[in-house]
Amino acid sequence: MDLSLITFVQILVAVIAIICLMVANAVVMVYVERKVAGFIQRRPGPYEVGPWGTIQAICDSMKLLAKQIFVPANVDLVLFFLAPVLAFFPVLLLFLPIPFGPYLTPWKTPDGLVLILAFAGFGVLSNLLAGWASNNKYGVLGAARAVSQSIAYEIPLMLALMAVVFQAGSLNLSVIVEKQGWVPWEWNIVTQPLAFFIYLICLVAETNRAPFDLPEAESELTAGFHTEYSGMGFALFFLSEYANMLLVSFICATFFLGGYKGPIIDGFWWTIIKAYAVMVFIVWIRWTFPRVRFDQLLNINWKWLLPLGLLNLWITAIIIKVVN
Amino acid sequence: MASWLNFINPFTIDDDPGTYLGDFYTDNFEKGAQKGNVILNLGPQHPSTHGVLRVLVELYGEYVLRSEPVLGYLHRMQEKMGEVKTPYQYLPNMGRVDYLNPIAWNWAYAGAVELLAGIEVPERAEYLRIISAELNRISSHLLWWGAFVLDLGGVTPILYAFEEREKINDILQIVTGSRLTMNYFRFGGVGQDGDERFFALIGEFIPYMRERLKMYKDLVTDNVILRRRLEGIGPMDRDLCLRYGATGPILRAAGVDYDTRKAIPYGLYHKFEYRVPIGPPNDNFGRYIMRLEEIEASLTILSQAIESIPQGKHIIDKAPKPAYKLPPGEVFFAVEGARGQVICHILSDGGKTPYRIKLRAPGFSNLSLFAEAAKGTILADAIAILGSLDLVIPEVDR
């Protein structure tokens, strides 16, 4: 791997662009989420601030910026302030290997998937630190749940992605997109339906969204690991949640839905459309399902998703061997 | 550490943390705890305690080993107020005891006074009482349904439940004049007669609500996650319910056929034909189903009532005036509220105000089941059990 000056500048520009993307995404998704929730619950959603309530998200973020950062008694100050930062910034790196368009990949690394899976662990670390450092029993319970949930669901998630990697023969995300065609029946979702299904469930669990939002289960743990965070601390957790959603949606689009390829002209717009379709799906199931219990959550993983993922990987391997 | 913490945030309390161990209840609860277990304070400002209930739980991991409800955060001396106010002045308080089911409390107090004073109620007034009480029961069960699914993490159903509840409030507003703390009953009748619009709206509401119940079943009751969260969780058997004096849907889910409307008939309930749902199952799901079926039973009563309501007066001519004095004596009147048996017990010595009033809140007895039922469950299930008891804290504390 040669990190020449050009690559370095390229990554630097990409990181700045990704920060913009993450913030813009959070603004858009707050609005989309509240409007979709309003539609599902048969109410208008935000409509007071700006035309159709479009600047509601900006007003919300202004409010969060202006709020006092409350520090509870006897917290571990270093970890308490490190946790939200750690939740937000590692997500930046995860966007680097994603091919947004045919010529729009921040960093064309041959080991893109390894990078993503390696840095994805930082999210759970920040949840653990936040819960532990905030000197709150609800926080600790939320943190404990976050760790066991994320670690458990990372395994079937990896197995589902590995099946696609076997098929494409590469860890490079650009190659995986190139191996897929532009029509829906040439996408990996057709050849790997089981992997797609497993990935879809894991994606909801990994981003801590309902019905798998146990680390921050409101009715049990008030707000879970971020109970004691206010102002920008909370805002960073909020941003990272939406950034994580965006990331898993982009990965979903890249691995299973043909990435930037589409019926008319290939380009980043197809990636964006597909990713946001997945996002709206995540929002949709959040507002329609009740929450599962924690032991049920782990049972789904260890008793169903993991064996199914292994079986899927095994079958994929055999088919590839036979065909070749 | 505290001094430079103040530099960042001057509002941080920098006292010795040792002084924050807890109050009387926490200290006592902690004495019985095993070493190493976590004592968690759920409430009084916890999202799922529905008001200001506080529950102390001893947790081993996520398992609830022991729990103890702490009451009294919303004690408003309702019983004492009955001793210092004349019966006429005290009647509006009844809408405030249980703000979700005010009509049942109206009835309990008005019924007790009428029984003691020997006041006859016109037949039309009895019908209006039944109509308002059943509408109120439906609205209370609807709100419970929404809040219970909210406890389980489903946010959307409560907004659907509120839509129906609004319709009921619109109907009851015509005759009671208010939407929450209704004061509808008078000694010897009701406050206002229902007009044509009132009965027309009820006629529209009954088929509409039946349609909605079907939708609730398809969308919520048959959801696989909800079923897994409810079935087999928190069983409360017959003995437990009888020992703690549980009433209402909880007792009926345990298989005991006891409904005050049938056991100690009052009003004109004996004229109506309806089925009181009985369990088993006696778990969370049983209590859930019991309440949804009770909505159907109430709709049956309503449709019979608006068909057969007679013409006549809604209140007797010589209704008691504000300065009305109760004759000496002791009386006991029980009503089936949405949460169970509501009892008003009056002891009068013939003075301006009653000597003593005892209000029996069903929620208080039902809450006492929680500590037994929650033992050994996971925290999430304990919350679900608490929700399934349908607690209204103002009523528990009175």
Structure description:
- The complex is a heterodimer of chains A (324) and B (398).
- Chain A has 324 residues and is mostly helical.
- Chain A has one domain.
- Chain A contains 14 helices and no strands.
- Chain A is globular, with a radius of gyration of 20 Å.
- The mean pLDDT of chain A is 85.
- Chain B is mainly α and 398 residues long.
- Chain B has a single domain, classed as Cytochrome-c3 Hydrogenase, chain B (Orthogonal Bundle), CATH 1.10.645.
- Helices cover 49% and strands 11% of the residues of chain B.
- Chain B has helices spanning 2-8, 24-31, 78-84, 87-90, 94-97, 102-117, 123-151, 157-176, 196-221, 224-230, 238-244, 249-253, 260-263, 284-308, 362-367, 370-373, 379-388, 393-397, and strands spanning 38-42, 54-60, 63-70, 185-186, 189-190, 329-336, 341-348, 356-360.
- Chain B has a three-stranded antiparallel sheet with strand order 1-2-3. In chain B, strands 6-7-8 form a three-stranded antiparallel sheet. A two-stranded antiparallel ribbon of chain B has the order 4-5.
- The two termini of chain B are 45 Å apart.
- The A-B interface holds A 37, 40-43, 68-74, 77, 137-138, 141, 210-211, 213, 217-220, 222, 287-296 and B 1, 5, 8-9, 11-15, 17, 20, 38, 40, 46-48, 62, 149-156, 159-160, 163, 223, 225-226, 228-229, 378-381, 383.
Question: Which descriptors would you attach to this protein?
Answer:
heterodimer, A: 324 residues, mainly alpha, 14 helices, B: 398 residues, Cytochrome-c3 Hydrogenase, chain B, three-stranded antiparallel beta sheet, 18 helices, 8 strands, globular, disordered N terminus
Mean pLDDT of chain A: 85
Question: What's the helix count of chain A?
Answer: 14
Q: Which percent bin holds the helix content of chain A?
A: 55-70%
Q: Terminal Cα separation of chain B, in Å?
A: 45 Å
Instruction: Tally the structural domains of chain B.
Output: 1
Principal-axes geometry of chain A comes out as globular
The SSE order of chain A reads HHHHHHHHHHHHHH
Put simply, the count of helices of chain B is 18
CATH superfamily of chain B: Cytochrome-c3 Hydrogenase, chain B
> What's the total number of strands of chain A?
0
The largest interface is: A-B, 34 and 38 residues
